[in-house]
Specification:
The chain is α/β, with parallel strands linked by helices. The strands form two sheets. Strands 1, 2, 5, 6, 7, 8, 9, 10 and 11 form a nine-stranded mixed β-sheet that branches. The longest helix has 23 residues. It starts with 16 loop residues before the first strand and ends in a 15-residue tail after the last strand.
Length: about 400
């Protein structure tokens, strides 16, 4: 969590809308905070932040503060939630560290996290069926107080920065985004409960009621807001930094614990390559439509239907720089609720390092050229150059 600056700010596409996309992942979310700190040092200040679950909390803290306060507020949050386990492992080695991680995760599961959640007393099974207290192990009332202290919701609702957080309806199963730009059109405002709804992962946390409807963590339906961003903005060019906390790729498990971790990684990982393929298909259809319209005689080009199709054939360019936290050998399926101080510092530092590494490749920040409309760069451990699978033409 050092505050050192890197090289001179990188040049970015002048007209591209800067977007920060933050995945859910519990205690791993300090990786996103470290990544944001490094991006801020590179003069990358997002105009739009979209988040799910812990990504929604980080997003709200960033969007709900002025530039000079953002990193300090993120540090306050992550130092507070990692306070219950401030000590470090006594012994070295992967075995000792794995034991430490499991112990600290068990401690958190028993006693909760300050400023975030606390065990429900009496426990959920002792509450009458149908009551809000009967559906979750923990009470998230402390999170509301934390959000009210660390986030300026007036700033968010003044549209200084676009903020979008995802949650899923308990009764319909539909994923819904609470977006301050869209809310303004409806005369609504983003409030702490919208952020809490995005983090309400059952059965640990209770659903959050908003306007008569109950919501759970958006990660149940989709753990990354990339789809929403690509669907919501089709006019402006986009430069997206997508910061994920689970990796879709990983080794074959050797044990039950490793199998549990691998299953969680796959379940909560993003589908960036699938989105890129989908974008390519849409691009080819729009390109074909433009070519067809260009062959029409002049008298048909002014037809209202053709004008409508011409508008639909227009498209923006999208550049996605994909940062993914990759687990250490001593981490297991409990990594997303191991809120130890040592883990938080490690994840924060990993986010800083990965951004610093990615910024060595300034071509990643260039807009797609010629007939390319979407470029996706994946920062991996074994390769720093985009592979043919990631570079779509």
């Amino acid at each position: 969590m050092n505050d050192s600056s890197y090289s001179a700010p990188a040049s970015t596409p002048a007209k591209a809308l800067r977007v920060l996309v933050l995945q859910g992942g519990g205690a791993l979310g300090s990786y996103q905070a470290g990544a944001y700190q490094a991006l801020a040092h590179q003069d990358f200040e997002p105009e739009w932040i979209a988040g799910i679950s812990i990504g929604a909390i980080n997003a709200a803290i960033i969007a709900g503060n002025t530039r000079e306060k953002r990193i300090d507020r993120l540090k306050q949050f992550w130092e507070m939630v990692s306070a219950p386990v401030p000590w470090s492992p006594i012994a070295s080695g992967e075995g000792a560290r794995s034991l430490f991680n499991e112990t600290s995760a068990a401690y958190i599961a028993t006693f909760g996290v300050p400023g975030f959640f606390r065990p429900r007393l009496p426990p959920a099974p002792l509450w009458p069926p149908g009551t809000p207290e009967s559906q979750s192990y923990y009470d998230t009332a402390p999170l509301r107080a934390t959000l009210e202290r660390l986030v300026d919701f007036d700033r968010i609702n003044a549209l200084e920065t676009r903020l979008s957080v995802g949650a899923v309806s308990v009764t319909t199963g539909n994923l819904r985004y609470f977006d301050n730009f869209e809310f303004r059109k409806l005369g609504k405002k983003i409030r702490p409960e919208h952020i809490m709804a995005s983090c309400a992962l059952p059965p640990g946390f209770p659903s959050i009621e908003i306007d008569g409807e109950h919501f759970w963590d958006g990660g149940i339906a989709s753990n990354t807001p990339l789809d929403y961003v690509l669907d919501a903005e089709i006019s402006n060019d986009l430069l997206i930094f997508q910061v994920d906390l689970f990796s879709a790729r990983g080794p074959l498990p050797d044990s039950l614990l490793e199998a549990a971790e691998r299953e969680k990684d796959i379940r909560f990982s993003s589908r960036t390559r699938m989105n890129t393929d989908k974008n390519k298909q849409v691009h080819n259809m729009r390109k074909g439509l433009r070519e067809l319209i260009g062959k029409l005689p002049d008298d048909l080009r002014n037809d209202p239907s053709v004008k409508m199709l011409s508008e639909a054939a227009k498209e923006n360019t999208v550049t996605v720089v994909h940062l993914i936290y990759r687990s250490k050998n001593y981490e297991s399926s409990s990594k997303d609720y191991d809120f130890s101080r040592v883990g938080m510092v490690e994840h924060w530092g990993a986010g800083e390092r990965d951004v610093k590494l990615s910024m060595r490749h300034k071509n990643w920040l260039e807009q797609p050229q010629s007939d390319e409309t979407m470029m996706s760069y994946d920062l991996t451990e074994d390769s720093l150059e985009p592979s043919s699978a990631n570079k779509r033409k």
